[in-house]
Amino acid sequence: MPLEIQLSEIVTEAERFGILNPLLAHNLAKGGDDAHETFALLLRDPDSNEVIGGLYGKVSYRWLLIDLVSVPESMRGQGIGERLMHMAEEVAKQKHCIGIWLETFSFQAPGFYQKLGYSEFGRLADYPPGHTRFYYQKRLC
After folding, report:
1. Does 8 map to a domain?
2. Is residue 25 a part of any domain in this protein?
3. Considering the domain boundaries, does residue 85 fall inside one?
4. DSSP E strand boundaries for 1-141
5. Whole-prediction pTM value?
6. Range of the domain at 72
7. I want to staple 97 with a disulfide (CB 3.0 to 4.6 A). Which of 7, 44, 92, 107 is the partner?
């Protein structure tokens, strides 16, 4: 029977794992165990204790990925983003990371990351249309 390739626009978690599991096995065989760890630096409202921003990342293959950074509009320009980034760098150093990498859009904060010593290693034009997605890294060793 010939192999069937089927388009699915509603993918179940089991179907996703059917794609992911052989890839994870291959990555483990070739790259070793990535033993990824996630972490967050939470900004909490002092009155309600509600999380109102912060930084979320993960360490994998001795690189720290900064996945999310968010500072409320009313709190920007006070050095909070810079503090979050420095704290993430400390986490990376404690975990013996080679470096840190992240993605950002042209309408977000590429200049902010450049100011902190991150260098561009890639870009995707027109994502979203009319804008650019940037990829930055900062080597620690």
Report:
1. no
2. no
3. yes
4. 37-44, 51-60, 63-70, 99-105, 119-125, 132-139
5. 0.88
6. 35-139
7. 92
Q: Residue 131 in contact with residue 107, Cβ under 8 Å?
A: yes
Contact status, residue 137 vs residue 101, Cβ threshold 8 Å: yes
Residue type, 14: A
- The rounded distance, in Å, linking the Cα atoms of 133 and 123 is 6
CA atoms within 13 A on the CB side of 37: 11
Dihedral of CA 45/46/49/55: which sign? positive
Is 6 among the domain residues? no
pLDDT score, position 35: 77
Amino acid identity of residue 13, one-letter, is E
pLDDT at position 1 is 83
Measuring CA to CA, which residue among 14, 67, 74, 72 is closest to residue 38? 67
Tell me: the pLDDT tens digits for 24-68?
899 889 998 877 899 999 999 999 999 999 999 999 999 999 999
What CATH number does the domain containing 125 carry?
Answer: 3.40.630.30
- Which amino acid does the sequence have at 84? L
Q: What span, in angstroms and rounded, lies between the C-alpha atoms of 76 and 19?
A: 41
Residue 91, amino acid: V
Q: How many domains does the chain have?
A: 1
